[in-house]
Design a protein that fits this description.
Elements lengths: L6 H8 L7 H14 L8 E2 L1 H8 L3 H13 L3 E4 L3 E4 L4 H25 L2 H20 L2 H17 L4 H24 L3 H17 L2 H10 L2 H24 L1
Antiparallel strand pairs: 1-3, 2-3
Helix pairs in contact: 1-2, 2-4, 5-7, 5-8, 5-10, 5-11, 6-7, 6-9, 7-8, 8-11, 9-10
Length: 241
């Protein structure tokens, strides 16, 4: 496995005003590799090459893996190290169903509780997405899209909802990333975002909640593709039995 960052780049990628403890910096770096599919589901996390590439000892690296294990992004195996979590499609579908429902609920609450600063921020992230769309920059689009949705979640002013949504967001981040990377009809998605903003501007909670749930169609398609890929990979093995 080739790790494309040195330690100084790792620290810069964290993008925090305050310096974080080293294990959290390493965890942030590994989290990005997992989310962006550079570390694949089921892949072993090789501690020695990572330690050399990042110029850190194995102690903070192992502490970082414990952080990711709590987030259920990696699985820890006694005396065998860690592997990237590889949830099944059924589990991912269940997670996505809960996640999309939470987004719909957050949209309803945001219409009741959002301040104008929240709404203005959502508009700004929409403009960031438009710029990325025009450049056909899918990675920038993905990041702006995440910020767009998270600002709506934050505008719900519901601490419990925000906490649970954040936990699920980490576990579904890769699926949403793949959905953006596979997206072909960007105009359709852009129109969905415009409708979401219009509903928020009007503070129409029922409409915004419904639009946010419907907006997950690309994520459902990404899961369908993952399922097809898993079935295709399993077919040769079954034929050998």
């Amino acid at each position: 496995m080739t790790v494309p960052f040195s330690m100084p780049m790792l620290e810069a990628s964290v993008r925090r005003v305050a310096v974080q403890p080293l294990p959290q910096q390493i965890a942030a770096h590994l989290r990005e590799l997992i989310i962006h599919d550079e570390l694949k589901p089921g892949e072993r996390v090789r501690e020695q090459p990572l330690s050399l590439e990042l110029a850190v000892s194995r102690t903070p690296l192992r502490d970082a893996l414990k952080i990711l294990a709590v987030e259920r992004l990696v699985d820890l195996h006694p005396n065998r190290g860690a592997t990237v979590a590889n949830p099944g499609v059924v589990e991912l579908r269940d997670l996505l169903r809960v996640y999309s429902t939470l987004e719909g609920l957050a949209g309803q609450m945001a219409c009741e509780r959002a301040e104008q600063d929240d709404i203005d921020a959502v508009h700004r992230w929409q403009q960031e997405m438009v710029g990325a769309f025009e450049r056909r920059d899918k990675l920038a689009y993905f990041r702006a899209n995440q910020a767009f949705h998270l600002r709506i979640i934050a505008a719900s002013r519901n601490a419990s909802l925000i906490e649970v949504h954040g936990q699920l967001n980490l576990r579904l981040h890769r699926v949403r990333y793949l959905a953006i990377m596979q997206q072909k009809d960007w105009t359709f998605v852009s129109n969905q975002h415009e409708a979401i903003i219009e509903a928020l501007d009007r503070r129409d909670g029922a409409l915004l909640g419904r639009l946010l749930v419907e907006h997950f169609s690309s994520a459902w398609r990404a899961l369908d593709l993952l399922e097809a890929q898993q079935e295709s990979a399993a077919a040769p093995a079954a034929a050998e039995l």
